[in-house]
Amino acid sequence: MTDFNAAIAHAQAHEVPWPRDPAADPAHWGVHQADPPPFNRLRGPVHPRGGVSGVIRINGREVAAWGEPDRADLTYSVAKTYLALLAGVANARGLLPDPQERIAARLPGIGFDDAHNRAITWAHMLEQTSEWQGSSFGIPDTVDHNRRVSHDPKPPAGAKGEPRALHAPGSYWEYNDVRINQLSLALLHLFGRPLPEVFEEAVLRPIGAGQGFRWEGYDDAWVEIAGRPVQSVPGGSHWGGGVSISARDQARIGQLLLDGGLHAGQPLVPAAWIGRMQQPCAIAPFYGWLTWLNRDGAMFPEASRSSWFMVGAGGNYTWIDPAHRAVVVVRWLDPAHSAGFVAHVAKAFG
């Protein structure tokens, strides 16, 4: 039996320095405080979190767990990858037959129609090269201009939230949560149903997950779909809302990705789509389709080069390692100590 005790001890010794209850010290919780006012506030619900937790699976079997692995906690931008999975479900159902198709061609009237935005394809949105401009539920794309994220090697061109000149869609990579929320809105219109319902039906229930799961939107993020009000959900918890899910369920989703979209012999997401999610973006080779890649070892030098990751603020990581047939989930780990955790796990893999 592989011994992960050193990795677990490292994680437990380095909890993220956020308060566990957002109401207790709101000035030091979350990522919205870095935004220029008046956008530096929560727009949707949040809730207290647990401590450091995690799960490790090898060859489809859980071999280690710590903390509260069944506690449903906010998972921040790990939810971005769930949007990519939903796009894959749409592809399988014939709703999104070609990721190179322009979104405006299929979904006019939802924010992709002007001269700049109508060139944007689904692939641009999935790889974060869309350069979409506008406001999504009252938040302008400029709020996340020049955003600095830890695994982006490119230095910001200006201050966070300082508007910059836009590039042609597909020619510039930027991590931008407003654009992700616009992708989520497009997927909502594509399915014509609430995305949390589709995700539970197509992904969670088939893999035996979903206990305590919820995916919530901003208080004012409602649109009319087929004559009824439906809440659009964000691809993270930057301004509140987002996905609450357990570490064990995150590991089950990671296992689905590791297995190429198959579960119990049934294809839940097309294998070709899962394969494309882990292919490098031409202008940002550290990024796939809403996933982080380790092709050159720059992200985590100790991890295999085939490793890929879902990453969320607050120290939320789901690591898929095909080289060791492993899925590793760790939550609420101080990102400053994430490389140490990965190194301990990699050493245990041998």
From TrEMBL:
Pfam families: Beta-lactamase (PF00144). It comes from the Bacteria. Signal peptide: none annotated. InterPro entries: Beta-lactam-related (IPR001466), Beta-lactam/transpept-like (IPR012338), Diverse_Enzym_Activities (IPR050789). Keywords: Hydrolase. Residues 51-330 form the Beta-lactamase-related domain. GO terms for molecular function: hydrolase activity. This is Serine hydrolase. It comes from Ramlibacter ginsenosidimutans.
